[in-house]
């Protein structure tokens, strides 16, 4: 199958050819015809499968080949859970639509509202937004959503995890009832199905990956190491190829900053990206990483959402994630488009239980290879009594919404980017929420 056979406008085919894209990915081949027909779509696709093009190409086709009476009002709305993903989607839409007369604007928190208000006043066809900042504009009446013909919910599972359901309901409540709705999620979990029932009309379903699947081109490896020696082992691994682009995940914002300082003191070019960083700092760090000005990007889970880097050879888990599902999201940044990738985890004895959870989720063993000179003082335990870090105790899933460990919905953000209307969560007495 080719993009030509999908019936896309010649201007889109030209832009795709200029980017070197000739054949659609499975999610694109499955989703684009459904979207072009005008029906609602419920699509399951992991990050790195080409899902952004799966909705942006037919969206651009529709807007460029039809007219509307919605003057100076957006005709399409794309909602994403994070700023980084919103910026990435906007960048892709501009790339694919470079030969079309279709305008777009991106709206997220962490930056001033002035330029966003000006863009909206000039009139745009597509708005890409995070829920919190969009509601800010709705409250100030600087955006008119009455002309929206197409709604896209991108990474809907993550938006639910982050407590965005009240915000989604509020936004969707002001949209026209007659519209096309496209929902993209990593899985068809029960809460996603419930969301589809509320907001969609007889959606078609397209799924290209089973739940919690990972690319077969990714190799998994564990280096056991005592917590106190993790930084030294990381330097040892990075020293094998100091020019290799490496994405490193930590559990906390403080841990990310501390690790970057250590790497820089050791002569490596590194930067951190997390919720306490300003939007300009996050954008700059990601840009420097993509351009090669820095070789190590240290990230937390939520901040890393939306990182889209071609040919990333390795992802290192300096800390294992609090819940096993986040391992899948983390390593989805490598092994893309058929390229090989390595997911390397530095695991202490205290994280044995987290490793056990990941192996059970993946339904496969992960190679455990000790590095000479960095052997564990106490071996890993992968039985039913495997220990876990205190701040990473498994959280029950309640009320149909996947609950994240404390801190995921409490990310520091003064501009309404996360969890508008999110319910308060109780935590055990004396336990502080883990920072992200």
UniProtKB/TrEMBL annotation:
Keyword ATP-binding found: yes
Any Gene Ontology biological process: ribosome assembly
Region (Disordered): 379-436
Chain intervals with Low complexity compositional bias: 389-398
UniProt-listed PROSITE patterns: DEAD_ATP_HELICASE, HELICASE_ATP_BIND_1, HELICASE_CTER, Q_MOTIF
UniProt organism field: Dyella monticola
Family designation: Belongs to the DEAD box helicase family.
Sequence motif: Q motif, positions: 1-29
Known catalytic reactions: ATP + H2O = ADP + phosphate + H(+)
Protein name as annotated: DEAD-box ATP-dependent RNA helicase RhpA
């Amino acid at each position: 199958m080719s993009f030509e056979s999908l019936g896309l406008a010649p201007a889109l085919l030209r832009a795709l050819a200029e980017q070197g894209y000739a054949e659609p990915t499975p999610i694109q081949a499955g989703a684009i015809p459904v979207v072009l027909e005008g029906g609602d779509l419920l699509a399951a696709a992991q990050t790195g499968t080409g899902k952004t093009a799966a909705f942006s190409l037919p969206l651009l086709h529709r807007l460029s080949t039809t007219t509307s009476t919605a003057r100076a009002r957006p005709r399409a709305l794309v909602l994403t859970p994070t700023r980084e993903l919103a910026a990435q989607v906007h960048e892709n839409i501009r790339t694919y639509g470079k030969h079309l007369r279709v305008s777009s604007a991106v709206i997220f928190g962490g930056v001033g509202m002035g330029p966003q208000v000006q863009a909206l006043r000039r009139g745009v066809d597509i708005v890409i937004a995070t829920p919190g900042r969009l509601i800010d504009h709705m409250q100030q009446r600087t955006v008119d959503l009455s002309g929206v013909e197409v709604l896209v919910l991108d990474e809907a599972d993550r938006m639910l995890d982050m407590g965005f359901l009240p915000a989604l309901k509020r936004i969707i409540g002001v949209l026209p009832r007659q519209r096309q709705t496209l929902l993209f999620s990593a899985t068809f979990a029960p809460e996603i199905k419930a969301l589809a029932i509320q907001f969609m009309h007889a959606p078609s379903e397209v799924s290209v990956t089973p739940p919690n699947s990972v690319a077969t081109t990714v190799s998994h490896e564990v280096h056991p190491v005592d917590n106190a020696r993790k930084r030294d082992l990381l330097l040892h691994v990075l020293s094998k190829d100091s020019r290799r682009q490496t994405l490193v995940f930590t559990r906390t914002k403080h841990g990310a900053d501390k690790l970057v300082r250590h790497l820089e003191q050791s002569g490596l070019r590194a930067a951190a990206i997390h919720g306490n960083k300003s939007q300009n700092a996050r954008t700059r760090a990601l840009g420097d990483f993509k351009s090669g000005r820095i070789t190590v990007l240290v990230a937390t889970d939520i901040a890393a959402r939306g990182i889209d880097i071609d040919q990333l050879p390795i992802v290192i888990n300096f800390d294992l994630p609090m819940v096993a599902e986040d391992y899948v999201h983390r390593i989805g940044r490598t092994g893309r488009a058929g390229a090989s990738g390595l997911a390397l985890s530095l695991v202490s004895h205290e994280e044995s239980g987290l490793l056990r959870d990941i192996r059970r989720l993946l339904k496969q063993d992960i190679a455990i290879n000790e590095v000479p000179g960095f052997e564990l003082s106490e071996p890993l335990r992968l039985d039913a009594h495997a220990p876990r870090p205190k701040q990473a105790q498994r959280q029950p899933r309640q009320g149909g919404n996947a609950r994240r460990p404390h801190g995921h919905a409490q990310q520091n953000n003064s501009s309404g980017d996360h969890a508008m209307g999110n319910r308060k969560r109780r935590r055990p007495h004396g336990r502080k929420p883990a920072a992200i």
